[in-house]
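=== RUN LOG ===
request id: a7f3
mode: sequence -> structure
chains: 1
length: 487
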Amino acid sequence: MKKTLSPLTRIEGHLSVETEVRDGVVVSARCRGEMYRGFENLLVGRRPLDAQRITQRICGVCHEVHGVASARALAQLYGIEPPPNGRLLQDIILALHMATDHILHFYHLALPDYVDFAVVLSYRGRDPALKHLREWVRIRKPWLFVKKVPGDYLSEPSQALPFVAHYFEALEVVGRGAQALAVFGGKVPFTHAIFPGGVTVELTPEKAAKVSEIVDELYRFAVTTYLPDVERLAGIYREYFRIGRGYFNLISYGGFASLGEPLSRPGVLINFEERPFEVEKIVEHVAHSYYEGGLRSFREGETRPAYGKAGAYSWIKAPRYDGHPMETGPLSRVWFSQKGRALLLKRLKTLKQAREAIFSTMGRHLSRAVESVILLEFCQEALSALDFTQPTIVTVNPEAAVSGSGLGLSNAARGELLHYVEAERGRITRYQCVVPSTWNFSPRDAEGKPGPVEKALEGCPVRFGEGLIEVGRVVRSYDPCLACSIH
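=== RESULT ===
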């Protein structure tokens, strides 16, 4: 029996998930990106520095991440290297954005799948904060209490109310993170301060102190509230350490090396076997995507739409590494981080879970929280390393008739991010993006291998009818961004 979740809500972009269900279990799934945007094509013919601005508009959630990836590709094209302050500032902006994005994902995008927020409306206790919250919610947030799809939500007050309270606290925390980003980035979203040669901010002790104060606030929230909340939810929904497994494959480009030793190192994990990362092994399949052509490297070919192509069912391409579908995300970076892996495995042990449990719905949530902690610790160290007497940027001539190519490998909240640019006489001739949700939500490839999310949905139980709450939980554990994947 076919059951479809369309559109999947609380994500960026339009995703449809079609499942085949037998005896109450998903036996196969197809993820459909239902929109075409064409950013790679509209950049052709423009000046290279235009990409720095335009690619940030790929997404309204993960904007700075495209700015940093594009800056790194353009820096290689122009043959420049940002000064130490420039590298530190780009990493701080990236880490801050990713950490706050993780908090937003758990509380505001994923948590409504597990908690019955309506419990606060019936609260009759004496806690003034919860009484105030009840009245505030009744007036301001009625959409949280629209009838939900059937499911096993937390509705017992002692379990649910702390999550509800932290949902609203997290709104303030995420806002504070945006303020810090604006101090160094000039504005949020779509910062104008990131450039190939660094960051244009006027660096002062006052600005660094302001950002440091906010980073400390975010860190306290991540350590005392976010990570414990994820562990508490995982302890209640323990079965989700077995649901959403998928492939045992991960890909990491490494990242956050401005302090010397990278926070996460490059590498791939294939069937739990670690291998060195080789960027040239990345190719994109379009056999089941609405594009012309076949197998190709990110350095080759054009992105020509072909809606209605026989056998195609998605606007998302199908990246593969050495022929393998690869999961990317916080899990991939934490696994290839000495600090992150140690913390993750310690938390898993506390929850009485084996290491294989990281490949699961709850494993992804736990990895995301762990990464927030280590990213904010990185920010604290990087802020201390800034030198207020030194420049933050090496400038380039925007009118230069530059020719050549540049590759930018970077990170985003949802996984690893690649930008590639070619230019001739000061004009872009090719631009390619391979983004996290393209990896995770890819359709089948030319060999018929399902994408990572399609594979992870196999074996997912369906117990509560047409709402497919269990399917939604698995899918949202990847923090989908369809705006990026159908760029």
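=== NOTES ===
The chain has one domain: 34-449.
The chain is about 40% helix and 15% strand.
=== END ===
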